[in-house]
């Protein structure tokens, strides 16, 4: 049992409810209403005070599995019992992404309106594969993605599609790029074409692009990683050289993936120059702005998408930067017809009369079934308004700059990368520790100590071989006090590590 039990939210038992389900049919409306209210109350308490829990779950492997029965219950059980077990067994094994001290990865920051939208889409439970199977799901997707397109300043030649994650958005974009290469891989399969396809990305590209190469038959050899400069941005001269070299050696280049906001440091590849190269080499340009794209809703941050109007496709994750609960990723595509050509396949039972007038989103990816994800996005945009979203993102950028200043002014810490967004890369570097091996060890100790204490949660990366701490500000509940707390925790962990 967790040592945090005493602070758990208590479920009030509801005396009126029965303990066995009806023999047939769903939970009654009366019962649903009672438990629905209980659950909403629980969520409201939870969101008001996620900091009552340690941000990083303190569970050991197997803790939950060992606590639960190995077989499904034979008879239905009372909701009260389930809710009590939620507190007792499930919550201790949750790492709290809603916690204001969550600085470890790019936040997937759920917000109240987003959660309510998610509840309603669970209630509708539609499958938005065809326009007809739920016209509102399809058209709300078009409306919200048009709103977002305008907010980030992409031209109206781009149309959007919602997928679950950036990994799948990029997979579909690269499949479209492969289709655009004109080898008819779709019909013949890659091996029959005899082509050795090659795509390019910086050495800091997200691992999901490697996975796309694996999944699409391009292979890891087919993804050539381009070196980056001192600020972790793709070296465009190297890119041009690699493409020419590959053509001379019989490869077929087809795609470049540029990143706006890389995972390690949030560096921004030089998209305008990369777009020049893609144009002259006739290559598909996909931009991974999964993290960085959201900031472009601020006029003063529009520059981060400079050159992206010339991309063929771009992915942005509202579930990262825009307070939409996971999952919701958007792929914008300037050549939606090619994406459709890559995937569309309509069996007889899915043919409908209005196919020429409407979008059937099943045509734009490998999956048939689709959730009604646009609803939660609509709720978030309506509730906060563009202005409310901008204010929150601007605040996060300011907090990151402030934290970066503390690092820069400290004798014991140093910054290891520029801060274009709200991620700070840094490490402890006290005067009396000089070897790289000792610094790596010290910083690992500091990170483990901070995370063990449970008030804030940080992650790390390696930059030029150096163990680097990452503080990523993106949670809607993070305040300046929490950034201050993170800084205090780091300094305390440093004195603790250097004392023992
Ligand atoms: C988070 C991230 C991804 C992966 O996002 P998922 O939605 O989890 O697949 C890809 N690229 C970048 C740059 C990211 O920050």
Task: Please give a handful of descriptors for the protein shown.
binds pyridoxal-5'-phosphate; 3 domains; 500 residues; dopa decarboxylase, N-terminal domain; Aspartate Aminotransferase, domain 2; 7-stranded mixed β-sheet; 4-stranded antiparallel β-sheet; disordered N terminus; alpha/beta; Aspartate Aminotransferase, domain 1; globular
Describe the structure.
By secondary structure, the chain is α/β, with parallel strands linked by helices. It is built from 16 helices and 11 strands. The protein has helices at residues 29-48, 63-67, 79-90, 112-124, 135-152, 166-180, 185-188, 190-193, 207-215, 236-248, 271-281, 318-321, 336-343, 374-409, 436-453, 480-499; strands at 159-163, 197-202, 223-226, 252-259, 284-288, 313-316, 329-333, 413-415, 423-428, 459-463, 466-472. Bound molecules: pyridoxal-5'-phosphate. The site of pyridoxal-5'-phosphate has 14 residues, from helix 6. Residues 106, 165-167, 206, 208, 259, 261, 263, 288, 290-291, 317, 329 line the site of pyridoxal-5'-phosphate (PLP).
The share of residues in extended strands comes to 5-15%
What percent of residues adopt helix (DSSP H or I)?
40-55%
Strand order of the largest sheet: 1-7-6-5-4-2-3
Q: Span between N and C termini?
A: 30 Å
Gyration radius (Cα, Å) is 25 Å
Tell the overall outline. Answer: globular
CATH superfamily of the largest domain: Type I PLP-dependent aspartate aminotransferase-like (Major domain)
The molecules bound to the chains, other than polymers, are: pyridoxal-5'-phosphate
Low-confidence regions: 1-7
Number of helices: 16
Instruction: Determine and state the CATH class of the largest domain.
Output: Alpha Beta
Tally the beta strands.
11
CATH T-level topology of the largest domain: Aspartate Aminotransferase, domain 2
